[in-house]
Amino acid sequence: GECYPCGKGLFSESQGSAACDYCEIGSFTSEEGMSTCEPCRPPFSTLSIARETPDACMCPEGMYGVNGNYSDGGICLECPEGMVCSFGSHEDYGTRPVIAMAFPDVEVGYMTKMENRLMPYRCLMEDWCPGGPSATCANNRDSNQVACGRCLDGYYLTDDICAPCEKTLSFSLILTILVGLCLIVASTLLANTGSHMRSQSNLIVLIMTSLLFTNFQALTVFDNLS
To answer: Is 23 within 8 Å of 37 (Cβ atoms)?
Structure first.
């Protein structure tokens, strides 16, 4: 019968074989009609059998790739402490064209900032840092801060949880209300006094009005800052 070459990812050690064999994990063939498979250089390996390209060779679990793909001369480095490197992890995954499967994740109790995703920080409290992708913090914690060490603006720390700040009456608002009440009382007295007392009452009303206006301005500025 007619013989056909083994396809990519397959091989046959002898002529006249009835079937081709699959390249084992950790090897590949990128050409047809091969009698052997080319092994990945250590510590690279492949995820499955019958791989067809050299870039199917990726870093094993516990390591991550740098300096490009396998065919570019890339290498594998040990996973940093506080991080989890699954098979095929690479420092350029998601940012540059590279054949990879994931970016190293962060362990629970650690966090990394987006500007340096391979430098994990150990968190003061494990609950603050749930792990996973870079810049991940517990609810309402600021991922721009080292080790998720601060609550987001508008939140405060209570029992190791960042809770929303409750709006309370400010001092300026209370003072404005009091001055307003005094102004109403003074206006009432002014309407029921003689001409001699009226000039003094007018001065009091003027002062209170000035205080009311000043406190209203202060309250507006405070609210804008909040």
So the answer is: yes
Burial (CB count within 10 angstroms: exposed 0-12, middle 13-18, buried 19+), residue 80: middle
CB 13: neighbour CB atoms within 10 A?
10
Instruction: State both tokens at 61.
Output: 């679990």
Tokens representing 51? 């791989």
Residues 33, 6: contact at Cβ < 8 Å?
Answer: yes
Chain segment 155-213, per-residue pLDDT in tens: 999 988 999 998 655 555 666 666 666 666 666 665 666 555 556 666 666 666 676 66
Query: Can you give the pTM of this predicted structure?
Result: 0.70
DSSP states of the chain? -------TTEE-SSTT-SSPEEPPTTEE--SSS-SSPEEPPTT-B-SSSSB-SGGG-BPPTTEEEESS-GGGT-EEEEPPTTEE--TTBBTTTTTSS---SBPPEEPTTEEEETTEEEEEEE-SSGGG---BSTT--STTB-TTSGGG-SBPTTEEEETTEEEEPPP---HHHHHHHHHHHHHHHHHHHHHTS-HHHHHHHHHHHHHHHHHHHHHHHHHHHHHHH-
What is the C-alpha to C-alpha distance for residues 171 and 164, in angstroms, rounded to an integer? 20
